[in-house]
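Look over both lines:
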Amino acid sequence: MRIISFMVEDHDMLPEEKTELHNLVEVVNYEDVASDEALESIKDIEVAICPPTTGIPLSWLKLLPNLKAIYVMGVGLDAIDADWVKEHNIDVRNTAGIPNEEVAEMAWALILATARNIPEADVCVRSGDWKLNKIPALGTTLKGKTLGIAGLGRIGAAIAAKAKAFDMSVAFYEAFDALAAKAPAEYTRYPSVVELAKNSDFLVCAMSATPETEKTINKEVFEALGAKGILINIGRGALVNEDDLFEAMENGTIAAAGLDVFWHEPKIDTRFSDYKNIVLSPHQGSSTVEVRHRSAQRVLDNIKEYMAKAGA
């Protein structure tokens, strides 16, 4: 059986699983499909694999008329045209649940980095500024503060669960009552992200990116979060209005931000480089060896299941 791969270098399978994949099926790399003859040869392919960050462009989906399954080696599905796959009855599966703890760890890494000015402190030591008594501004203590979680799904819940270790209280916004009902009794629920921001010291964005949630984190939210507030985003870049964020940073509307996701990754807005109090990470939330192994194995299991059903 042949499959087509849209994997990219920074989100590919590790050698062990890649070897297993190539022993299991014939893999056609989309970058090698250039000639008309090659395009014709892929029309019978039924299975595609891709990363969550770049997905599969609609232009390529249209070139695969017999596509029946897409296996995403990650959680996000926003880089795949939902209307197209639904209309064409394509089975799309991701690796939901696998990176929950690791993405939660990244959220806490950004919380600590922003609260204690860790990147700036690192530069201070390396540059020699410490010897000149040029040190970063004082940080802020986590104990006794309120951690606000916008989106209490699996990842949001994993982030919230770790707050106890820092003696922080947890507040949240969750649009779906079924998810909100799973929250521990000591968590405080708010009816909107704005109300959550008003009552939080740290606002962690862990929502899914949908047309309804696009630019949810905007000027009104930043004003509600306040001059001592810190924004953390490990969800999707589309959740934040970046123009409003830059305005908030320029005016001191909020204290800091820690971001693992952005609009137009990896070609992010150059203005991010202007602010020392914005901690930047290149979408590394699930980037651990362990997650990469587990995610690849999930994709391999999906392919094996498909082959068994197809009698391949």
